[in-house]
Task: structure prediction
Amino acid sequence: MSLIITSSSQGLDETNQIGIAKPEQYKNHMKNSLIIEAGSEIAVESVKINRIPMLDAGAAIVANYWFGERLAKNVGGYGPSPLDKSLSYIIPTQNRIGRSVTPVDFADQYLNTLKEAYSLHPEIDSVNIEMNTKFSAGGVFEGYEYIIPQIGIAGSASSTSPPAATSYVATIPTATNAFREGAYVTWDGSELDGAEGQFGQLQPRGEAGGPIALNGGLLQYDPSDLDQFTVGLSRPYCPKVAQTSPVTDESGGAESCQTPDEVFKPDGGAFGCGPYERDYYDYCAEVSTDGKLRLYHALPAQGKYVDTDAPFALGEGDGLRMTEIIYYEKTNTSFTAGNGENSSFATDSPITWSGNEGTISFETDGEKVKVLYNASVLCQASLVNASTKGQIPKPIAQTAWKMYPTVSFWEDDEPITIDKYTSRTSATIWNNQPENSWITKTLMSTFLDEVNGISTSKPVFVEGPNSNERPPWNNADFWGKKVDSRDMFVPYAAENATPAVPEEGGQIHTYQPVTAKVINDYENIFIVGDSQRYMGKAIQQWQPNSGNILGFYPMGFTPIAGSMTDNLGASFASAQRPSLMSQHTSFIRVPTFTHQTYNFGTGNPSKILFQVPRFDNAGTETGALYYQNNDKTYVDLNNAQQLNITELDIHIVRKNETFVEDLTGSTEIIFHVRKK
Result:
């Protein structure tokens, strides 16, 4: 019978010392051979380790996020759920830590996850999000404080357009537009120019600009010199794959760009704007061949929409179509109501453009879009009810959180002037690139530079020096369509012209503006556990399990947050101390000996001898721990002959036989060898 004493350190003061050997992986040597007689067996006598308080941020840990109105519990279970009445959807996150880390290191690394998630809304100051580690007066870890500020300052109406040298214009190919070699939409700092039939989007990024601000946002076009045009705002169009140079033909462009067909177009029919009726916007103003100024927005393509010239019935959920906003409605035949409170031009006839040319402006305020003709309100959501639902711009949903100036050209050499553009920049948007948008991430791979979260590459088609390909969120390609097709976006259709009995489109949404410097009733909510209220059953694969590690167990989502100074966003703390218990069991493995055990978790034979308890003999789980094994399990060494041992390899591993990461100082393990 023999005791074998091993240690990861041979220093005199070993409490916090780590030498060449690691506390979870070390090798000891004998000057003379240790003789183990034939037919012996071995067990662990005792273990002494020093375990650092760690948070288990393994790859399976998932947290999701929400920015929008807090959802009420669905009472009764009938009718649309609270989720179906919302403009928001989950913001999924992917855990890129994937290992156990200290509480301070976790906060440092997880902060970028928070910034990435909330950078998708332009009014969140994602650059200045904070995640602070809180300790008691005695130095005991208590949890985290999360600070998620909104910018809180409206964009200035005097903002100028992005400079030519620091912006990029995406020339967007469609099935029938004039996408020709060498013919691109260009920007010189004041004018967008392109060939007949082309469709383009101004995409400033970095410090030069970004998406339109949703607090005091302004985009002002001056198409006074044009007889025909289409100008507006739209979600970003982005490359599918990184390119080393701009594409030069239609096939290359179609392969490289997220086309309007993929985002908007239903299966068949020319239901867009522009000269070929193929260009899609979230909001736009257009003067076509009839010389009338009309407004359009993208609404769900429902079965009731039939093109009378080329009949084509569309099924629910087939996509979006550009639908006219009847801003000029004076007398609605179904509701006996007009649009006078929402428009200064409720005259029963659209404005004749020729002879009345002027500026077209889009202003944004929270969920609201206001369109102005010169200085007068062309259309806005002031009075919202069943009678006006089809006469006002739709509310801004999560699919269109980030919008950029977008235009269609009807003739060659007819540039479109942008007088003013109030946008957000990399001063407040973490990773300010068009690709960094919610709708884009649901549909396609993105290439995002990760140098301090800010893009260092200018053209979209050029892969930046630090960019990494991010695949689209798994099985998320239908999320945008699900949001855009909610009942609130469907024009009100009364059954048999009876307003009291809506056929569809019965939901009337209350538009949320900016109030007291923040978007009214919008909250930053962490979804940390099972929550059908916010996620439904269709996306259960994204169900999170981060309540323990973020400090909100057993809640499914965070409670109402306390206010920050000046009411700018949200500030809240962990409801309880995040769990420092390792969710992984530790094992002692000795590859030197001739024994054999079996690890069915890996499906392989193993050299594991012992499972290290989570708590030591004194009931402690972190710090200096001592385990005395009073009920030893002996393992056969399978040695028919004498063993001569001169060195021992000692490993402490997880169940998947990877090394643990939460040990420091000196490890001491004593083995007991005896004759069977």
Q: What stands out?
A: Residues 57-128+517-573 form one domain. The longest strand covers residues 663-675. The chain has a mean pLDDT of 81.
